[in-house]
Amino acid sequence: MSCIIVYQLAFCVEDSQGLSLVNQVILNVLLIEDNPTDVRLIETLLRRTQGCDYQIDRVEIMAEAIEWVLKKSYAVILLDLSLPDIRGLETCQVMYQQAPHIPIIVLTGLEDEITAISALKVGAQDYIFKNELRPNMLARAIHYAIKRKETLEKLRQSEARYRGIIEDQTEFICRFLADGTITFINRAFSLFCHQSPDSLIGQCASYKLFTQDWHQLQTQLSQITPKSPTITLELPILGHNPHLIWQSWTIRGIFTSQNTLAEYQAVGRDITNTKQAELILRKQAQQEKILSIITQKIRQSLNLEEILKTTVQEVQQLLQADRVLIYGLHPEPQLSVLVESVAPDCTSILGESIEEVNLEEILDWGSESELKLGVIEEVLSPARSAFQEKLHQWQVKSQLVIQIKCFELLTSDRDVGIKSPEELRQKTPESLWGLLALQDCRSPRTWPEDQLALLRKITHQVAIAIRQGQLYQQLAQTNRVLQQMATLDGLTGIANRRGFDQYLAVEWRRLAREGTPLSVILCDVDYFKLYNDTYGHQAGDDCLRKVAQAIASSAQRPADLVARYGGEEFVVLLPNTPLDGALEVADKIQEEIQDREIEHLASPIRSNLTLSLGVACQTPRLDMEPYQLLINADEALYQSKAQGRNTIQTHGLSLDNHSKLV
User: Fold this and answer.
1) Among 123, 6, 125, 13, which residue's Cα sits nearest to residue 57?
2) What is the mean pLDDT of residues 470-485?
3) Helix 286-298 vs helix 272-282: crossing angle, to nearest 10
4) CATH fold for the domain made of 497-661
């Protein structure tokens, strides 16, 4: 027997701006039920819902149901576990095999609860007891089942993509237990070992991964802790040829929520070529080695102050100068000592400055070198300029100065038409950022050409590091602004829905650990559409800003959060607050709104603007989802509107954990 019936069902969706809307949609549902009484019950319940065309195809036996799912697309399947041609858990198993992409809701009696729960393990999304059906319960279950199925499908696709990425990596990837037992490998690891994945799973990682003793490796692995979960090892491995192969392994410990080690995740790559290159580099000139070391230290940090300090320290240690410093042009032509590294028996001049400096006096502008040098092998008396006078005050006998020039960032217009790094370099303007100075205070000094060449190279690397540090600072500032913009409502200036959701998740976990209550207040502006129609949308925006200010002034503890929940709805999150405390805040919110006397002549209940409030309180648990608290508050808000608006309604939990209106 097959029949098609059209019903109305309410579904709430969100638009791109997070506003709650009701869309008219048509959902095809396959009802597999042979009991006419149960069919009439479902028909009655669905007729009481509003907002969506709901189309049912009803069948009585599994064979006919399979024919329908093969020829028609359905949004959900309502499945009775007791049919004429099949019964029990097998009913759900067969249906899921035929339609794994369609969410299944099991319809059952109380006596079949164990079977219904088992059905969730073989593909069902939910189950409902027929004799406990209530208005909107079935509609809500259908809505959540569809959403859960969509979420599961997205997770499945994400896992498939993740596994595909892992398998395509050229790095060796594996997981192994604390005792060394391998539990997972990727294709690259299998090829390196010249064994199939099945033959490697279960073997000890020390035999296939490392040539050193397992107990020695465990000593290195013991450095991994929950606070420092990652180590990197460079290990020699005997290859299949056999040849010695160098590999770099990054090993991360995976810990449980109780900080117990569950397993290790290891990613390795062949660094044999790198090791060979290192051997070649060791044979190069000592000057290049020193440059590499200094450059590495200078560019280890993106913090500009650390970059400058590292530069002067390394240069002083390398060339044994009495004082190494960096002048900054702040502003030109004033020179200021930004950082210095000074010998113990020399005076510090950090923070000193030289006014009205003539750079032509300091640097040799006739040099053909890209970076100009200024060499004073002996500071003569008497001083002929303010600059030389300062050198006398600082007891400088000789000084070497070299430019620090940084490339400026290209704008989008300049960037057009640039096709090569050389062209980029030619078209990118440079500016004089500062000066690197080496000073000797004991006696005059000459500077060999090889030292000058080395200093030019070091200064070039310093300029790159400075630009990177500046870019990092700009990026960090931009990210802070973007993060703030992402969690704030652009109209009211308070938190938006995203910011609220993030904060709710954090506080839910925290209060679950502490065992203290969490309260929430949902606030809705009464007859706001009439307000907009009467006063215009600009006035409506001003009104929402005033409401946000009123609510925010009522919840001012550091842990309290006021957010715009969507449209004319606001939400207040009150950590460590019982129900009576939340009611006090709700009363204060209404008082603040009344005191502001926001005119609303179009309101049917008062001449000033009013709010309806729903309050809910719950002690969070880690095995519960925080959205239940919002559902409770939303139900209380619904009751507030049903009571005539401009009221406060509360929702609590009885001892048996069944919801009730208080």
Assistant:
1) 6
2) 76
3) 120
4) Alpha-Beta Plaits (3.30.70)
